[in-house]
Amino acid sequence: MGAGQRSLRHGWRRSSFCGNELECVEVSVKDSQVLARDSKDPHGAVLVFPAATWKDFLQALGAGRLDGS
Angle at the Cα of 16 (from 11 to 21), degrees rounded to 5? Predict the structure, then answer.
């Protein structure tokens, strides 16, 4: 069983900003990792990030360092 298949057993969530939109990133926490997938393809590829890396990403996003300007 691959990492993507194992991850399907974990609860997935997405931002409340997504509303009823289908084009969102969903995340799941497993041990010390954060799993991310495309909500349009829930059986597709799953990206796995160390929790510390995901935290750094969210902090950079919140600080506006990834807005492309």
Answer: 90
Distance from C-alpha of 12 to C-alpha of 37, rounded to nearest angstrom: 9
Q: Residues 6 or more apart from 13 whose CB is under 8 A from it?
A: 26, 27, 28
Q: What is the pLDDT of residues 12-48, one digit of tens each?
A: 998 887 877 778 889 999 999 999 999 889 899 999 9
Query: How do beta strands 33-38 and 47-50 pair?
Result: antiparallel
Classified as helix, coil or strand, 25 is strand
**The pLDDT of residue 69:** 64
pLDDT bracket for residue 63 (50, 70, 90)? very high
